[in-house]
Each structure stands twice: as C-alpha cells, then as structure tokens.
Amino acid sequence: MITIDGSYGEGGGQIIRTAVALSAVYGEDVTIHNIRSARPKPGLKAQHLMAVRTAAKMTGAQVEGLKIGSTELTFKPQDIIGGHYDVNIGTAGSITLLLQCLMPAAAASKEPITLDIIGGTDVAWSPSVDYMSNVLLPVLASMGLECSIKVNQRGYYPKGGGQVRAEITPSVLVGAELKQEQGQGQEQKMEPKVEQEKKHETITGISHSSNLPEHVTRRQADSALAVLEAAGYGASIDTEYSRCLSTGSGITLWSGYMGGSALGKRGLPAEKVGQAAAGKIIAELGTGAAVDVHLADQLIPYMGLAGSGSFTVREVSEHTNTNIWVVEQFLDVEFGIEKQEGGLFRIYL
User: Fold this and answer.
1) How far is the C-alpha of 81 from the C-alpha of 113, rounded, in Å?
2) CA-based, 20 to 30 A from 163: which of 102, 122, 268, 312?
3) Average pLDDT of the chain?
4) How far apart are CA 236 and CA 126, in angstroms?
5) What is the set of domains in the chain, with CATH numbers?
C-alpha cells in the first residue's frame, strides 16, 4: 500500500488524478489522505469523484472514501478492462482533467478503450480540449501513446453539456528528448529514438463561441492576430460558432509544444480574450524552451512511465514539482532539475 499526502505541494486535485492513474497502471493499492486540506472547501469534489469512479470501473477497483468532501481515499485496483465507457461528469466538470487521470491507465490496457464523456470542454483552471488535442497529444504520440480526441459539442461553465469521444490504443511508452532551437520559437526538434525535426511556420488557433453573436468569435480571433503579428509571428486562426447547451466563448493558440488559451466571460470584451491568449503563447515562444509551463507538469507521469526523457521549460511550477513528487512515490525513479544558461530549466529522467 502506497500512502500519499494530498496536502503536499500545491495540494490540489492533480495529486488525486496522478496517484490514481499510477495505481491503476501498476496495480498498486494507494491511500491518499489530507485531500485538498488547505483549500476553502477541503476534500473531494464532484469532478474528482467521477474520475476515480471511472478509473475504478476500468480496473475493477475497490474504493473507500468515495464521497463529496472526503479527505481520505483508498483505491485498490485489479486488471485494466478494455472496452467502451460512458462518463457523465455533470455540469461543467473538466473533461480534460478527467482524461489526465484515465489516459495512462487506458494506454496500459491490453485492449483499446473508448470513452464518451459529457462535461466541460472549455472551463477555467483546466487545459482546453483544443490544447489537449494540439499540444499535449502530439508530444505523447512521439512517446508512443496512441490517443485520438473528437469534440462533438462544446461545453462551457456552468451548464457544461460538452461531448467528447476519446479513443486510446494499448501503447508502450518511450522517453523523448524535447528540444527547441533558439530564436523566435517557431522551430522545435523532437528526439524520441530517431531524430526528427518539425518546423512551425505559423501559430495556429481556433476561436469559438456558443449562443453568442458571431462577431464575438471573429473579434477574439482578430485581436489575437493583431497582437501576434505585432510581435512578429504569422498566425492562422479558425472560427467556430455553434448553439450548444452552454453559452460561452474561448480561444486556443498553439505552435509546436506550446499553447495559450483564454475564456470569455460576462462583461469581458472579446478583444481582451484574444489578446490574453496571444500574450500567453508569446511569453512561452520567446524563451526558447521546448515546452510551455502548463505542458511540463502534464508530461511528468508519462516520463515516469517511460523511464526516461527530458525537456526545457522557462519556469518549474508548483504543479510540476508536485507531480514529480507523486511519481517518485510510486516508481523507482528520481527526476533531475538543472538551471541552464539563459534562465531555462531542464527537467530530466
């Protein structure tokens, strides 16, 4: 039995997702205590419950403490079971955060797993579904993970209702050395086992909205384009207008293994939304790092499972440090962090 202190580091839901994922992959029982103990409302929230409940179905696990507000959880998995799973998170719980918990286990299955998920595709405090599809998944593909994500309908706060299908094929992970050439941040090199090179001539993106005037979507895109062009970057941003259960808007931009996104909200001009997303990706691309700050923490569990890998990042976030600690509790690995010339940090295993 592995025991994890849920208050360690940033002390949030990421500890639960990573611990349960690794428990499922290795068949190791785990107990997590002090769950979110420093938060205004400690304990498990509804979105954590659904992630653990689905992981339990996928692994035939026995679970103790699975209730709203619980500050201790015990997860005892069996074998991972392939097949199809329907998951309704409820309201606008984040689909991408749920997938963070389930994808490692699904990749370790002996049979393909399909997840039809209802929840939030573009909500605060989580990666947008476009970020996951266009920034995270390409890196994981270079590491051997086969996963596809299809968005059938978007879901925004507070109603949710987004519909996503994720298909994960049994995969064997390998370490990847992620590098970026110095300069404008538009050229990156990826070296899993065979050296490959990818050039990104422009920043790509999508501006989207639901149940709002179509000009909102266009204004988000135009304002982002103006900021990017002023900074010397070419860009191509698609627009998507729909009528879904939820009302909302957002924009995600990406180039290689870096991204920037922003969400609309009542009273916030569409121009501000586009400018915010553009500012986030420019801040990353200008550093010469291989991955952005948010991608860094998401890659840690997969590096641990692969047993090797490295990347550079402009800043080591509390989320990244926390994920490193959780992975090291499960696996016989020790991550290294070294500061390089120019202020970048290299994280390696």
Assistant:
1) 8
2) 268
3) 93
4) 24
5) 1-79 (3.30.110)
